[in-house]
Amino acid sequence: MDLKLLDVEPSEAERVVVDLFTGMGRDQLLPALHAVNDRVGWISQGALNHICRVLHVPPAEAYGVASFYSLFSLTERPAKVVHVCVDLACQVNGAKALCDRLTVELGPAGAKSGWLRSPCLGVCEKAPAALAFEAGEVAKEQLLAPTHAGEVIAVAAAGPSPVDGGRAEVPQAGAAGLRLLKRVGVVDPESLDDYRATGGYAALRTALLLGPSGVIREVTDAKLMGRGGAAFPTGRKWDATARQPVRPHYLVCNADESEPGTFKDRLLMEGDPFAVIESMTIAGFAAGCSRGYLYLRGEYPRALHLLRNAIARARERNFLGENIMGHEGFSFDIEIRRGAGAYICGEETAIFNSIEGFRGEPRSKPPFPVESGLFGKPTVVNNVETLVNVPVILTEGCEAYTRIGTEASTGPKLFCLSGNVSRPGVYEVPFGTTLGELLDLAGGVPPGRELRAVLLGGAAGGFVRPDELDLPLTMEDARAAGTTLGSGVVLVLDDTADLGSFLLRIAAFFRDESCGQCVPCRIGTVRQEEAMHRLVGKRPLSTSAADLQLLREVGQVMRDSSICGLGQTAWNAIESALDRLGYAQEAAS
């Protein structure tokens, strides 16, 4: 390929890390960008030129990819920077006051001051949160959660500490009857022996005895639905992929949970990483995949450390690699791919583009991933929570599994409680538990406060009023009630919450995270935010009735004609606040 490059050369440090990718293909573009960012803290024109030479990627396309992700910078910034979350859970737990203090002490957010405003960091149970990063020969990252201005100022000056070896915490740790969370906070997540002593790899052994079709039959009979929000039957997806004659088949574990208020997958990866690896191996066996990719959001340094360890230990003991567990002919391995700050990459086809070295933009469907997915081959995509249900099904049996939950929504479900709640965290309950029972489990709102609303499903979800707490938490009951469980977000707002500011943050989130590929979403999210600013600010030039009508028209267009779920759901939460919570009347008053 005849590349036309600018006359700018990389530094010696940049050249060294990029040369490690010599002889590799375009699918290494994102890892190469990470390598440069980890080494020097930003991506210079010289580094981008050299990446293009080594990987044979057109410069315009490489620039498009590098500029797509929020964790990368194409303008010079210090080696040390702190990303301070300003998203939903942090917003209602003091993020504004934290940022105000940092502005006074360090200056306005930006590269010069050493701190940046950030979307959700996925540690909503410990809000407010920040992520400290320092580039170098060995890059260092540290999640600060919960944090305060003094800590952020100190870490901005001194740099982050190495990833700690502490255990993940869960309010139900050690409770009887847990299945998905039974090891979290109890078992050493770095020890394969501890994992096996608590039943680890028994499910894979069962899978190898059942054979691929037997595993698929068990998962299908268990009625396991996807836990990422779409609720597609997992067995059907695996079966459709397994039947494809084209080879190879791929498995992608979607661990890019970037929905504000979602952190259950992080907890599973940090607290039970071997379960994630075993579950992926079973899925790969069932669907005929020889390789799996775990696409991990870039803001999870501790999960990255623990998953790398789990993969290495599994390879050592023949739980990954060639002829796994002595099963002749079954070979499967896993590669971690780090995201770099893009909510849209949680969409299943956007993940494919990101892994392949393109902008993380969704693809039109059909063809569906089971026919043509990663690298154009049949691909299974499941999120972390969906996958870790599979060992439960294989060890307890599909009939026992279906007795958990309801007839249509079977099994246990993880919910992420955050916001104004006494004991935030991830909770495991059977499908069918009511919202009120779940809130009671988490201690309800803090003493002396009253519940104002609950946001179900995150920024793409909908609100529930205090008089609707008898809602059974199932896929079908949520749909009937005009809302959604989504990925399991339960974000609680008490009577101190500023609903207007909260809705503005939702509107800003979708504007920022739109990939810009389709006009309805690219323009609609901007118009939605503009109208919300006028409504919330009650500006004289605006008439509330006109803006409400504009919001409804724009929202409907996005829902009907956007390419992917981001644009199709960008209006959901705002619409439910207007109609279900009566914010339309509040804004008009």
From TrEMBL:
InterPro entries according to UniProt: NADH-UbQ_OxRdtase_51kDa_CS, Nuo51_FMN-bd, Nuo51_FMN-bd_sf, NuoE_N, Nuop51_4Fe4S-bd, Nuop51_4Fe4S-bd_sf, Soluble_ligand-bd, Thioredoxin-like_sf
Keywords, in A-Z order: 4Fe-4S, Iron, Iron-sulfur, Metal-binding
Ranges annotated as spanning the membrane: none
A UniProt-annotated Pfam family: Complex1_51K
Stored PROSITE patterns: COMPLEX1_51K_2
NADH-ubiquinone oxidoreductase 51kDa subunit iron-sulphur binding domain location: 500-548
SUPFAM superfamilies, per database record: Nqo1 FMN-binding domain-like (SSF142019), Nqo1 middle domain-like (SSF142984), Nqo1C-terminal domain-like (SSF140490), Thioredoxin-like (SSF52833)
PANTHER family from the UniProt entry: NADH-QUINONE OXIDOREDUCTASE SUBUNIT F
Family named by the database record: Belongs to the complex I 51 kDa subunit family.
Protein name per Swiss-Prot or TrEMBL: NAD(P)H-dependent oxidoreductase subunit E
